[in-house]
Amino acid sequence: MQRAGRRGRQVQEGSPMENGVRQEPGTPELPAAEDIPAPRPPRVRPRLVFHTQLAHGSPTGRIEGFTNVKELYAKIAEVFGISPTEILFCTLNTHKVDMQKLLGGQIGLEDFIFAHVRGETKEVEVTKTEDALGLTITDNGAGYAFIKRIKEGSIINRIQTVCVGDSIEAINDHTIVGCRHYEVARMLRELPRAQPFTLRLVQPKKAFGESGGSPCPCPGDG
Q: Which portions of the sequence form the region Disordered (predicted)?
């Protein structure tokens, strides 16, 4: 017995089909090869390559393949042959310590990443004569809290050696590396008034020829 196949093809029951595939009696005929839509090619994600430099000066490097801040720091460190723990924070499109240009959650393909690395360490003694020190603190998402703003006329503003961009490494010899910014802020708020305490700070490395001991060029607007 014969039956009409699709597209008018006559197929003997139990006879071999093309490509060595047998059709069992009573089963529908397979569609012709030209009837099967070609599979869509897999969507290829574009390679996202970013340019980077060390803020105090370096050749330009290229990085890619990171999904978070720690991976980004690791990629930058690999390019320049340094430890990821040397990086305090990154700014976009400027080598200056500009808190308006801090690297945040998004990076555009045209953005140029500048990595600010550890420079000199300094210790300052502070007496808390008011409840508020006048600091706004943020962190880099990888273990370092640093000063984002200094309020004009505040206790900290009167200490010329404390600058925006300084990383707070210890309070009274108690290391705070690994703490989030809100934890550091709470520690500073809880310090008793009228009792001096010591801040150990790490300033970003400066370019050759930049003064290391001058007052901060931008105390901030906190």
A: 1-44
